[in-house]
Amino acid sequence: MATVMLIVYWFSLLVVLYTYIGYGVVMAMLARLRNRPYPMPITEENLPTISIIIPAYNEAEILGPKIRNTLQFNYPKERLQVIVITDGSDDGSDAIVHAFPQVTGMHQAPREGKAMAINRAMQIVQGSITVLTDANAMVDPASLRLLVAHFADNRVGGASGEKRIASPAREEVSAGGEGLYWIYESWLKEQDAAVQTLVGAAGELFAFRTRLFQPFEPDTILDDFMLSLRICLKGYRIAYEPGATAIETGSVSLAEEQKRKVRIAAGGYQSMARLKMLQNARDKPMLLFQYISHRVLRWTITPLCLVLLMISNLALVIQDKGDFYSFSFWLQCLFYGAAAAGWLGALINKKWPVVSAIYYFVFMHWSAILGGIMYFSGKHTASWEKSKRLNLPVKENQAG
């Protein structure tokens, strides 16, 4: 029994350390060796035609500013097509779209989910490059030119922008924790892209070659992840452009953030089952390595390892296996105690340094476990439920 607990302890510890430290170190070292050149801007006469798709479900509150933000992109208007699809919305979103003659609106009463909405919009896309952007994300006007510069490389099938979490005057705990997470995630994306490719694009701002689009299955949850990985499986890479930014706020509460995270985790399980990466990426060892290290471990094994690490550590302390395991156990108790303090802060809407970030880390992995349960119990759905987010103050140059 003691041997089993020792194996479980060290396996769990090494998986957690590799997922959040080891993989980043490996990729940073490989990125230094790769030294991939930064893309040169495309000349004005060679700028490609672009179709922007904005899926929106009951986004009347933010849809007007979002459309004005989109129409102010620093890009030739004659080469820009904007499509806003409001399927299933019953809050007047479709009427808002009709107020903008420069925009093509698509609306149907039945709500079939985001993936099917994108499938419908792709049928009328005219641009050689398609850009997907969320309705609640405000995009920097210079972003399109930065993204399309990557497509001068014929090996690039898509380019992802940078998601940033805004900090309005009233900031929820989830916004602070999510913001810290995205700082780390953005750094890791830089390493991934420098070595080979991103393994999952940001749905807030993602550009791809239109001809590479493969229609989504009706029940698809993570459309951006599925689209980007299928492009990679066709032999292309997904580039990362940190200068192309999409800003959104954190969820209005941790309950709303958990709803979002659980759904994403369920979508991760669905994607893994559907992509069959072990079978389809045999001739792409680096892609497979990145996929397992950056996605599979985080969505499935690492959350369980955190639980097993605590259980096995407690067993080893009870069996009196030495001072090291006692120290490790109390260190974990301190860690989860800090998470509990962060949880208490969340209840009273207080964001305390360090403990809020620790709580978000624990909360994220707990949501991943719940997402796995949701997927295997068959309770996941393709109909996207928008999470309630904090109001994002819209600047004049964004809203017009």
What this model shows, in words?
- This protein is an alpha/beta fold.
- It has a single domain, classed as Spore Coat Polysaccharide Biosynthesis Protein SpsA, Chain A (Alpha-Beta Complex), CATH 3.90.550.
- It contains 13 helices and eight strands.
- It has an eight-stranded mixed beta sheet with strand order 3-2-1-4-7-6-8-5, with helices on both faces.
- It starts with a helix and ends with a helix.
- The C terminus is likely disordered.
Distance between the termini: 67 Å
Q: In the CATH classification, which architecture applies?
A: Alpha-Beta Complex
Q: Could you name the CATH homologous superfamily?
A: Spore Coat Polysaccharide Biosynthesis Protein SpsA, Chain A
CATH class: Alpha Beta
Mean pLDDT figure: 88
What CATH calls the topology is Spore Coat Polysaccharide Biosynthesis Protein SpsA, Chain A
Strand content: 5-15%
Structural class: alpha/beta
Number of helices: 13
Number of domains: 1
Give Rg in angstroms: 22 Å
Overall number of strands: 8
Biggest sheet, spatial arrangement of strands: 3-2-1-4-7-6-8-5
Order of helices and strands: HEHEHEHEEHEHEHEHHHHHH
- Oligomeric grouping of the chains: single chain
Query: Segments where pLDDT lies below 50 for 5+ residues?
Result: 169-174, 392-400
Which geometry do the CA atoms define? globular
Helix percent reads 40-55%
